Amino acid sequence: MRPDGVGGEDKRAAVNPVLYLGPFVSSFDRLSMAPLLLPIALDFHATLAQVVVVATLYYLLAGLTQPLYGVLSDRFGRVPVIRGSLVLVMIGSIVSAAAQSLLWLIVARVITGAAIGAIIPASLVYVADMYPYRLRQRAIVNVSVAVAIGNSAGLLGSGILVTFVSWRGPFAITALLAGGLAVLMRGLPEPPRAGHESVATRFQRVGQSGWARFVITLAIADGAVFQGLTTYFAPALQSQGVTAAVAGLVTAGYGFATVVAGQAVRRSPIGRSAPMLSAAGASMLAVGYLFAAASPGATGILVASLLAGAAYAFLHSSLQTWATEVVPEARGTATALFALALFIGAAAATGMVAHPAERHDYPLIFLIGGVCSVLIGVVATVSMLRYQRARRWRNWRVDTDVLDL
After folding, report:
1. pLDDT tens-digit readout, 169-214
2. What predicted TM-score, i.e. pTM, was given to this entire model?
3. N or C: less crowded end of the chain, CB within 10 Å?
4. How many whole angstroms separate alpha carbon 123 and alpha carbon 308?
5. Within its chain, how far is the Cα of 279 from the centroid?
6. Cα separation of 116 and 343, whole Å?
7. Are the CB atoms for 16 and 10 separated by under 8 Å?
C-alpha cells in the first residue's frame, strides 16, 4: 500500500530489501569495466581507444533501450521487467567471460548493456510507487547506497581478479549474481500503479511537460560527469604503472563515500532540500575533478573518488527523485527517458575523451569534468528552486479550489 495518506514523516511503506540487490548487480557490472580496459587491450593486442568502444557501446545500448523498458514496466509491472533483464544480463555476461576476440566481447557487452539498463530505473520507479514525494528523496538514497556498494565491489573486485586471476572473472561473477537474483525475486510483490494507458499517451504526457523535458536534458550532463568521465579514474592510475588491484582499491573510495554521504542525506534536514543537495553535490564533484586534474596520482584520484562518491548521493539522487515526480501518471516512461539521457551522456563523454586518454592526457579529462560539474550544479540548483516554487503555488491553488467548493 502506498503511504500517501499516512500521517507523520517517519512512517514509510515497506520495500523488500531484495529490490536493492538489482541496483547492486547493475552497478557492479558497470564499474567493473574500468580496471579491465588496459588488461583487455593487452590481451587482445588492441589500443585503449579500441577497447573503450566496449564501454561506450555498453553505455549507449543501456540508454537506447530505456524507452522500451519504461513502456514495459508501466504496462506489465516493475518486477517482471527487472527479472527478465537479469536473465539477459546473465546470458550476456557468460558470453563476455568466454569471448575469444575483441569483436565477440563487444557483442557480448552490447547484449549485457541493452539488458542491464532496465534494472536501476525500474527499481527507482518501484520505490517511487511506494513512497510519497515528501519521503522519496530519502528512500531513493537507499537505491544510491546499493549502487555505491556495487560500485565499490565492482572496482575493487575486478581490480583484484584481473591482477591475480583474469579479466574474465568479473563477468563470470555478474552472470552468477544476475541468475541467482532473477530466481530470488520471484516473491517480490508488485507495487500499485496508475491505470493502463497507451504507449502514445504516456509519451505524449512526458513530451507535453516542460519540466520533464528539462530534467531529461539535464540527465545528459549528469551521465557525463558521474558515469562517463569517472571511468578514467582507474586507467589514469594504471597508466603510471599502478596495478589494477591497487587502482581498484583507490577508486573504490567512490562507493564508500556514497554510503557515508547517503546516511548524511537520510539523517540530516538537508535531505529534504533538493536545491541545497544539488549545490553541495556539484561543489564536491567539481573540487574532486579539479584535484585529480592537478594531481592525477594515487592521492589525487583517491580524493576525487571520495568527493565524486559523496556528490553522487547528494546531486545524482536529487535528480533521480526529480525525474520520478515530474509526470506521476507516466512515471516509468519519464524515468526511463531520464535514464536514456543519462546513458547517452555517459557514452558520449566516454567516447569523446578516448583519444586524450590514449595520450595519457588525464589532467585535461578531469579539468573538463570539473568545468562541467560547476555548470550542472548552477543549472540544477536554480531550476530546482523554480520548480519547488511552482509546485508550492500549484498545491496552494488546488487547496484553495477545494475550500471554495
Report:
1. 999 999 999 999 999 998 888 876 665 666 677 778 888 888 889 9
2. 0.70
3. C
4. 22
5. 19
6. 11
7. no
Q: How far apart are CA 185 and CA 196, in angstroms?
A: 24
CA distance readout (Å), 211 to 61, 96, 121, 202, 322: 25, 39, 19, 15, 9
Domain boundary assignment for the chain:
17-396
One-letter amino acid of 207: G
Amino acid at 244: A
Nearest residue to 345 via CA among 136, 131, 44, 62: 62
What is the distance between the alpha carbons of residues 37 and 53, in angstroms, rounded to a whole number? 10
Asked whether 316 and 352 are in contact (CB, 8 A), the reply is: no
Neighbours of 180 (CB within 10 A): 14
Between CA 48 and CA 382 the distance in angstroms is 39
The three cell numbers locating residue 146: 546499493
Q: How far apart are CA 385 and CA 130, in angstroms?
A: 25
Cell of 240: 603510471
Taking Cα atoms as reference points, which of 244, 278, 264, 62 lies closest to residue 156? 244
Three-state DSSP at 34 gives helix
Distance CA 20, CA 10 (A): 20
pLDDT tens across 64-108, in order?
887 788 778 877 888 899 999 999 999 999 999 999 999 999 999
The grid cell for 28 is: 557492479
What is the separation of C-alpha 121 from the centre of its chain, rounded to a whole number of angstroms? Answer: 9
CB 141 within 8 A of CB 271: yes
Per DSSP, helices labelled H in 209-273 are 210-223, 233-238, 244-251, 253-267
User: In angstroms, rounded to a whole number, what is the distance separating the alpha carbons of residues 104 and 141?
Assistant: 36
Identify the CA nearest to 61 among candidates 124, 115, 119.
115
DSSP H helices in 117-273: 119-130, 133-164, 169-184, 199-208, 210-223, 233-238, 244-251, 253-267
Residue 347: which H helix or E strand, with range? helix 331-352
Note whether 313 and 148 are within 8 A (CB): yes
Classify residue 225 by its DSSP letter.
Answer: I
In 3D space, the residue among 120, 158, 165, 174 whose CA is nearest the CA of residue 32 turns out to be 158
For 17-396, which CATH class?
mainly alpha
